[in-house]
Inverse folding.
């Protein structure tokens, strides 16, 4: 174990203990302030964020893009502090925080008995959204997550994710566990908006063809598993609207490479629609277009 990882873990635990002394409203205020401070003062990935926004939303003015960027940083800050505060959250309180617009889509998809793929993005509070499934619908999900370099911090975060009954599947070893879970009729939760290796199939995202992970589509078509997209949008009172969309696949008739690409296009298009509608809810700091730089960009 690296000494630096131990120091990071101790700092994380110290900050977490202090955050958990606050009421939830105080944790949110601190998270929003932290996000604003990171954008304005630390300027961490500020150029990446504004560059992504300019590329995706060229019709917006500089002032509009900066407002969206600041909101995105604040959203990440709030979501992070809400996750840190989560050990104090009761299942009943979490259930009351989320308002699903079309819960019947989830219920009917699960009733088919072929498992369930629940897809979202780094949008709104994706961490609380995953937890809200078990409190709203009564069944746990297997959450695919990327293992953090600091294993101590990683375990602490995953304990929060598993606290009320969900399970963790590390991204690095996910294939076998996902197949087993789907065969058992279980639900898989995954975030599918990050950059894929450049050898992956490209689909259009905000007007640019970008390499995109096809895992959700391949699993859905090969296993006959319904693919449902859900996005959480924060209300002014800090509760969440959860918008549920069935990703249509009935006309694709099983797995082929072409069908997998088409289903990927469909769920990426749905994701883009929500980002366009609520641009300050998405994590623009991520280098989503790193494999397709604009003319004049550094490689």
């Amino acid at each position: 174990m690296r000494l630096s990882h131990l120091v990071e873990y101790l700092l994380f635990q110290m900050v977490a203990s202090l955050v958990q002394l606050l009421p939830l409203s105080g944790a949110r205020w601190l998270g929003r302030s932290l996000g604003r401070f990171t954008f304005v003062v630390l300027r961490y990935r500020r150029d990446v964020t504004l560059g992504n926004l300019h590329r995706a939303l060229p019709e917006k003015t500089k002032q509009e893009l900066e407002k969206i960027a600041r909101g995105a940083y604040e959203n990440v800050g709030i979501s992070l502090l809400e996750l840190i505060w989560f050990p104090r959250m009761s299942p009943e309180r979490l259930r009351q925080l989320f308002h699903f617009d079309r819960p019947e889509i989830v219920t009917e998809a699960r009733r088919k008995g072929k498992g369930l793929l629940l897809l979202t993005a780094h949008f709104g509070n994706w961490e609380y959204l995953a937890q809200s499934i078990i409190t709203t619908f009564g069944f746990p999900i297997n959450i695919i997550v990327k293992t953090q370099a600091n294993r101590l911090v990683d375990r602490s975060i995953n304990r929060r994710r598993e606290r009320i009954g969900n399970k963790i599947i590390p991204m690095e070893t996910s294939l076998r566990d996902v197949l087993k879970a789907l065969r058992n009729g279980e639900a898989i939760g995954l975030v599918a908006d990050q950059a894929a290796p450049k050898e992956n199939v490209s689909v259009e995202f905000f007007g640019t063809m970008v390499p995109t992970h096809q895992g959700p589509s391949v699993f859905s078509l090969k296993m006959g598993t319904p693919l449902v997209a859900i996005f959480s949008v924060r209300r002014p009172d800090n509760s969440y609207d959860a918008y549920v969309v069935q990703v249509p696949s009935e006309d694709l008739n099983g797995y082929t490479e072409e069908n997998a690409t088409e289903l990927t296009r469909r769920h990426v298009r749905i994701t883009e629609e929500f980002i366009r509608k609520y641009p300050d809810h998405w994590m623009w700091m991520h280098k989503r277009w790193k494999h397709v730089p604009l003319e004049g960009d550094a490689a």
